[in-house]
Amino acid sequence: MTDFPLAPGSTLGILGGGQLGRMLALAAARLGLDCVVLTPDPDSPASRVVKQTFVAPYDDPAALAAFAAACDVVTYEFENVPAQCVDALIALGALVAPGPQALSAAQDRVAEKTFLNGAGAATVAFASIDHWEAIGPAAQGLGYPALLKTRREGYDGKGQIWIEKSGDEAEAFAAIGSRPAILEARADFVRELSVIAARGRDGEIAIYPLGENHHENGVLRRTTAPAPADQATLEQAERIAAQIMAGLDYVGVMGVELFQLADGQLLVNEIAPRVHNSGHWTQDGCAVDQFEQHVRAVAGWPLGSTAVMARVEMLNLLGDEVEAWPRLAADPDSRLHLYGKRETVAGRKMGHVNRMRGPV
Ligand code: AMP
């Protein structure tokens, strides 16, 4: 029986070894907690800062058993962890947070939007698509252009294509791999925002101010925070985050991506049941950042203060942009965060920089 709050010296298990796992582990270390990681990657960004790495596929029964035995609590740093992996860990007696219902809601875009609408969080209108012949009639109802996305495993704008007009259907369906899909009405947004929120084991909630996000080729390029927003917008975002987390009986940090329409309404684009790239600004902008907040939540600690200490512009360092590190390291107004990835690949997230934009 695990007692919460977990005492310093306890072990947090992380499924996934990417940069989010690395930054979670660094935050856990500050609180005196150890981390172990399960990842198929023998040389992951997280593995170089944790106590132990279990290098194995996520469905390896022996590795899952050893990993579960090593952990007081288990979390994950990406949402495409196979559901069977989490089910197996739970069957082994592991405590997994956020729970499996958050994972299944986030893994399938149709289940996600269905859940969101049921929880009182508005989204674009959508249709579930199993065959290209279903696209035309659905697009008639949703209006052109409409966005065809794979139901599962899409990220950073991958696996999605616009249907501009009648006749595009068969080719578009083939382009996303002829897989189960969702067709979404176009959100006519004026800006993209996100809210990073946390819910503790006792249901306590903490919400960070909004970030405003700018994407390039479907990938987050920069976030500015706190985003200017009137009281009604802030309250709307907080209500949405709180309703989603309550609906999932959520424990941990969640990223909620939002579209703001011209009339001020917020639609939820998607939820990430984990720490989120658009929350990296909190590392240098807030009293307690999203990584420590997530560790606090899953470890049953009191949530930390989300108070804003500084305005921040977070810039992702993609591909060879990371080579600017000597200049960024010399800039007194920049805080550099590098992920320790061995190989620079075009477009790959290699690090980020938080540019300090002055007091709030
Ligand atoms: P996603 O992979 O769903 O996060 O989408 C990546 C990006 O595509 C979003 O950040 C938006 O810029 C854009 N996008 C996604 N869905 C829609 C939509 N229904 N209408 C307009 N733009 C969208």
Mind sketching the topology for me?
Elements (H helix, E strand, L loop, with lengths): L10 E5 L3 H12 L3 E6 L12 E4 L5 H10 L2 E4 L6 H9 L8 H8 L1 H10 L7 E4 L5 H8 L3 E5 L9 E4 L5 H7 L5 E5 L3 E11 L5 E3 L3 E6 L2 E7 L5 H17 L4 E10 L4 E7 L9 H4 L4 H9 L13 E7 L6 H6 L3 E5 L10 E8 L4
Parallel strand pairs: 1-2, 1-4, 2-3
Antiparallel strand pairs: 5-8, 6-7, 6-8, 9-10, 9-11, 9-13, 11-12, 12-15, 13-14, 15-17, 16-17
Helix pairs in contact: 1-10, 4-5
The structure holds adenosine monophosphate.
Adenosine monophosphate binds next to strand 14.
Keywords, separated by commas or semicolons:
Rossmann fold; 28% helix; binds adenosine monophosphate; alpha+beta; 11 helices; D-amino Acid Aminotransferase, Chain A, domain 1
User: Number of helical segments?
Assistant: 11
> Averaging pLDDT over every residue, what do you get?
96
Radius of gyration computed on alpha carbons: 20 Å
- CATH secondary-structure class of the largest domain: Alpha Beta
Proper CATH architecture of the largest domain: 2-Layer Sandwich
What is the rounded distance between the termini?
44 Å
